[in-house]
TrEMBL record:
<dbReference type="InterPro" id="IPR002295">
    <property type="entry name" value="N4/N6-MTase_EcoPI_Mod-like"/>
</dbReference>
<dbReference type="GO" id="GO:0008170">
    <property type="term" value="F:N-methyltransferase activity"/>
</dbReference>
<dbReference type="InterPro" id="IPR002941">
    <property type="entry name" value="DNA_methylase_N4/N6"/>
</dbReference>
<keyword id="KW-0489">Methyltransferase</keyword>
<dbReference type="InterPro" id="IPR002052">
    <property type="entry name" value="DNA_methylase_N6_adenine_CS"/>
</dbReference>
<protein>
    <submittedName>
        <fullName>Site-specific DNA-methyltransferase</fullName>
    </submittedName>
</protein>
<dbReference type="InterPro" id="IPR029063">
    <property type="entry name" value="SAM-dependent_MTases_sf"/>
</dbReference>
<dbReference type="GO" id="GO:0032259">
    <property type="term" value="P:methylation"/>
</dbReference>
<dbReference type="GO" id="GO:0003677">
    <property type="term" value="F:DNA binding"/>
</dbReference>
<comment type="similarity">
    <text>Belongs to the N(4)/N(6)-methyltransferase family.</text>
</comment>
<dbReference type="Pfam" id="PF01555">
    <property type="entry name" value="N6_N4_Mtase"/>
</dbReference>
<keyword id="KW-0808">Transferase</keyword>
<feature type="domain" description="DNA methylase N-4/N-6">
    <location>
        <begin position="122"/>
        <end position="441"/>
    </location>
</feature>
<keyword id="KW-0949">S-adenosyl-L-methionine</keyword>
């Protein structure tokens, strides 16, 4: 029997119950839902008992981060949503070939929708969330029962006239709690998307740095903390400050598995290399004199002796020091011209460290000065160079310089690995700009997924997603032009996708409210304003396929069909499907095939389709929507 696809985001609570059932089958029980139907549930008293070696009797105090609304926030992370992603070709660049995504909509919805398609596939997540300074432009309050306009009005982002206003006043008693409740479910979902060797980098200011660190410890595990980087964001401190002039932000870094995660080396600086010279013309090249002694604390008796220079001078280690090597080893090194006694041959011995033998790179430090990664003014100049702002437009207050993001890419990604870089607080699109720049420089194939909150503007100014898309388009064009023909394979496009309600009609009506005259209104399962391509992307989500896979459109028996990734999926959403079209699809032996449920004229037609696939391509997984 052909089964129907779910067509909603995954129910993560049900998935978690499955995992617990495998480990502790006795803790799974049944309850009744609001409609009186039985459903699985977890007996938490039994679960607590399974996880301790003594009797559990009530709640106990323990070390943890807590705030009002935490339970609701945790529930929000697991609750499924009946939403989808609709492709918008006219906003996209190179729609048919690009592997990059730009998603417009609430990032909590986006993270839920991407759970199956990108589970364990994102190498790096960089986000620059609202800093919660009391004047942040956005407060992400999560309510799944509202449309976007009602949500913006309720959350204080717009007034009655639809004009955007400042929200999240620090006079609110829930100032910190609201912010933590906003971040908690998003971080939980983001964690699922990271590759085993992935990492997350989060920019934050002083107001919530400590709280964010504790939250990350809880969600990612304190053992996966890597570092907190200090970014020097200001090159000219404000003298008007009455207490301290703020010149830095933080970047908290957590790895999926810090025990095995390693960062790449940064290129050596000219200053580092300048210290290496070759005064004696050694054929092995430039070298630098290094100390020939070590602390005496762990030295052996064989490291204390008199060492003579070629001219007869005798040296012993200074007080508290020992020779770095034993005497026989030093004699070998002297014979190999690896010990330097000064230009006159009479100086205290030093070890020659050759440039070709030292680590060809430098380990990143936790202080990133602006002369290495840029500052806030650089970021604004970059944005203004990409996007033309009118008088009515709002120029972003806190964009990040692309050099800062490129430092992260250099440390945490590889050029030719198709690494996915995600930013779900995309703002002006800096992350996409940085990814394209980095790929152009090193010939890389990194991909990006950007998510930005839906925002239409107010008629006098453009919304943030529109500005960000323009920046990414201009960045791609500018970088391609500057790089020339040798980067003809550079991916500067993106598929623009909008989060919207499900493509499927809600036909659930109880018999007592359904009238005979209304029956014809509920025959179709697809909303009338949705295209076949809309349906395709919802199917990709439901089947857990990447949204950047190549798509080919063609006609078979006068029916439009889509072939995804050379037969990984063939979809036909024609309102009626013929046996000839079904057989033509089956003969291609796709891994998956999907049709509209109402495309079959009768149960007999549906059974006939099943039989065709059973005979021609029995391995094909066939579903309907």
């Amino acid at each position: 029997m052909i089964e129907k696809l779910r067509m909603t985001s995954p129910d993560l609570a049900e998935a978690n119950i499955d995992k617990l059932a495998e480990l502790f089958p006795t803790v799974v029980t049944e309850t009744l839902d609001a409609e009186g139907n039985p459903q699985r549930a977890i007996d938490f008293d039994l679960l607590r008992q399974e996880l301790t070696g003594r009797i559990v009797d009530g709640p106990q105090e323990r070390y943890r981060l807590d705030w009002p609304g935490k339970r609701t926030a945790a529930f929000a992370a697991n609750a499924p949503i009946a939403k989808t992603l609709r492709p918008v070709r006219e906003e996209s660049v190179d729609f048919d070939t690009t592997k990059n995504l730009f998603i417009e909509g609430d990032n909590l919805d986006a993270l839920k929708l991407l759970q199956e398609s990108y589970l364990g596939k994102v190498k790096v997540i960089y986000i620059d969330p609202p800093y919660n300074t009391g004047s942040d432009r956005f407060v992400y309050e999560d309510d799944f029962a509202e449309d976007a306009e009602a949500f913006l009005f309720r959350s204080g982002q717009v007034n009655e006239d639809g004009e955007r206003i400042t929200a999240n006043s620090d006079t609110s008693g829930r100032f910190h709690s609201d912010w933590l409740s906003m971040m908690y479910p998003r971080l939980k979902l983001a964690w699922n998307l990271l590759t085993p060797d992935g990492a997350v980098f989060i920019s934050i200011g002083d107001a919530e740095s400590a709280a964010l660190k504790l939250l990350l410890d809880e969600v990612f595990g304190s053992k996966n903390f890597v570092a907190t980087v200090i970014w020097q964001k200001v090159y000219s401190p404000m003298n008007s400050a009455t207490q301290f002039a703020s010149v830095h932000d933080y970047i908290h870094v957590y790895a999926r598995n810090a025990a095995t995660w390693t960062s790449n080396l940064l290129p050596r600086t000219e200053e580092q290399n300048a210290a290496y010279k070759n005064p004696d013309g050694d054929p092995r090249g430039r070298w630098k004199a290094a100390d020939a002694t070590a602390a005496a604390g762990h030295a052996t008796p064989s490291q204390f002796y008199e060492l003579s220079t070629p001219t007869g001078n005798v040296f012993t280690p200074p007080p508290g020091r020992a020779w770095l090597y034993t005497e026989p080893r030093y004699r070998q090194m002297i014979a190999d011209n690896r010990v330097w006694f000064g230009s006159d041959g009479q100086g205290r011995p030093a070890i020659k460290r050759f440039l070709t033998e030292v680590k060809q790179g430098r380990v990143a430090q936790t202080f990133w000065p602006y002369d290495e990664v840029g500052h806030s003014q650089d970021a604004k100049k970059e944005l203004l160079a990409r996007v033309q702002f009118s008088n009515g437009d709002t120029v972003f207050d806190t964009p990040k310089p692309t050099m800062l993001i490129r430092r992260i890419l250099a440390l945490a990604t590889e050029p030719n690995s198709d690494d996915i870089v995600m930013d779900f607080f995309a703002g002006s699109g800096t992350t996409a700009d940085a990814v394209i720049q980095q790929n152009a420089e090193d010939g890389g194939s990194r991909r990006f997924i950007l998510v930005q909150l839906h925002d239409h503007g107010d008629g006098r100014k453009r919304g943030i997603p529109e500005v960000a898309r323009e920046r990414v388009r201009k960045a791609g064009q500018s970088i391609s032009d500057a790089a020339g023909l040798h980067v003809s394979t550079l991916d500067v496009g993106f598929r623009s996708l909008h989060i919207t309600t499900t493509n499927m009609v809600d036909v659930r009506r109880s018999p007592d409210v359904l009238e005979q005259s209304e029956l014809n209104l509920y025959q179709g399962s697809v909303k009338p304003d949705r295209s076949s391509e809309d349906l395709l992307f919802q199917v990709l989500l439901d089947w857990g396929l990447e949204l950047s896979l190549p798509i080919v459109r063609e006609l078979v028996d006068n029916r439009e069909l889509y072939s995804v990734d050379d037969g990984a999926l063939i979809a036909c959403f024609a309102e009626s499907v013929s046996p000839e079209a079904i057989r033509a699809i089956a003969e291609r032996s796709p891994l998956r095939a999907v049709f509209r449920d109402d495309a079959f004229e009768s149960d007999a037609a549906r059974i006939n389709a099943e039989q065709i696939f059973r005979e021609v391509s029995p391995s094909t997984e066939v579903r309907t929507i």
